[in-house]
UniProtKB/TrEMBL annotation:
Signal peptide location: 1-21
Organism the protein comes from: Coprinopsis marcescibilis (Agaric fungus)
Superkingdom of source: Eukaryota
Segments forming domain GH16: 39-288
Stated name of the protein: Glycoside hydrolase family 16 protein
Alphabetized UniProt keyword annotations: Hydrolase, Signal
Upper taxonomic lineage: Eukaryota, Fungi, Dikarya, Basidiomycota, Agaricomycotina
């Protein structure tokens, strides 16, 4: 190789290094029936004690609790069955990605999320075992139609967030991420816009949630469907994304008081939809919902017609 060419290549590699730091390449483009291959169905008892019966993949297809088309993946609760008070809970679905991810960007292009009294939808990431030692990142979570969304970390003891110096548009709540304190509230950030959760999210056709996990921070962004500022690589599902151009995140979790490499291990992506249970059931009355949560779920199947996720795509970049 001629020295001049070598020198040119070396200088190009050096020049591109800072850019590469925030550029990720498409690893998994999960659309429609792709969800069936990329996720495992977890037909387990709900760890949060919800009034649901999680079903396996065959059952979810047979009962139409999951449904795919070329550009949509639907995941829902049953909305036709009146439940016996002593029998199992309402059919629902919890899925976990087959792949594990460390540093990555995940983009959820979501048209609709489950709504209704008693619903507790979540899109989140956690380690396969030994919770909370491997960390948990909640990207979408809320209960009983109560807006807005919150993004939250849960960890073992010793990971906290600073009280200032966090460039984010959301509002920080608790700063201690330790799952063992504050009743496992975690360190959360409340989103500024009501249309980030529940019926108001659905009324505008949803939007995009994105999470970037690097060794120095975890960031979460939300763009409503009608936003003029959706980055084109988010909107169009590009082959690469460069998060530097995405503007101030909704939630920013820096590593200044939390060694992210130590507190966050390889994560699965989990999508779960429970009813009632520890959180949604616990605050059900305060949410302005009728009757009691379990009795409402048992006796009003039609109220869960809109308790579904509609994913346009899930794209993971590494
Ligand atoms: C699901 O259905 C397929 C094809 O009908 C069958 O081979 C498989 O054993 C079923 N799995 C379960 C868990 O029932
Ligand atoms: C299954 O669900 C999809 C999506 O909600 C719907 O379009 C379809 O009509 C349903 N199929 C049946 C047999 O109910
Ligand atoms: C039932 C269930 O698995 N619930 C989980 C859903 O997601 C949240 C994270 O947002 C977990 O904390 C729950 O345990």
């Amino acid at each position: 190789m001629k020295p001049t060419l070598l020198a040119l290549l070396l200088s190009l590699a050096w020049l591109s290094a800072p850019v590469l730091a925030a550029t990720y390449s498409l690893s998994d483009n999960i659309v429609g029936s792709g969800f069936y291959n990329s996720f495992d169905w977890e037909a387990i008892p709900d760890p949060t004690h919800g009034r649901v019966a999680y079903v396996d993949q065959n059952t979810s297809r047979n009962r139409n609790l999951t449904f795919s088309s070329s550009n949509s993946f639907i995941l829902r609760t049953d909305y036709t069955t009146v439940l016996s008070a002593n029998g199992p809970g309402r059919g629902s679905v919890r899925i976990k990605s087959k792949k594990l991810y460390t540093t990555h960007v995940a983009i959820f292009d979501l048209r609709h999320m489950p709504e209704g009294c008693g619903t507790w939808p979540a899109i989140w990431e956690t380690a396969t075992s030994n919770w909370p030692a491997g960390g948990e990142v909640d990207i979408v979570e809320g209960v009983n139609n109560q807006s807005p969304n919150a993004a939250t970390l849960h960890t073992s003891a010793g990971c906290t967030m600073p009280s200032s110096g966090r460039p984010q548009t959301g509002t920080a709540g608790q700063l201690n991420c330790d799952a063992a304190v504050n009743g496992n509230t975690g360190c959360g950030v409340r989103f500024p816009s009501a249309n980030s959760f529940g019926p108001s999210f659905n009324s505008i056709g949803g939007g995009w949630f994105a999470m970037e996990r690097s060794n120095s921070f975890i960031k979460v962004w939300f763009w409503p469907r009608n936003s003029g500022s959706v980055p084109s690589n988010v909107r169009n599902g590009g082959q690469t994304v460069n998060t530097d151009g995405w503007g101030t995140p909704t939630a920013f979790f820096p590593n200044t008081q939390c060694d992210l490499g130590r507190y966050f291990k390889a994560h699965n992506i989990i999508i779960n939809l429970t009813l009632c249970g520890d959180w949604a059931g616990g605050v059900y009355g305060q949410s302005g919902c009728p009757s009691s949560c379990v009795s409402y779920v048992n006796n009003n199947p039609g109220s869960f017609r809109n308790a579904y996720f509609d994913f346009a795509a899930l794209r993971v970049y590494t």
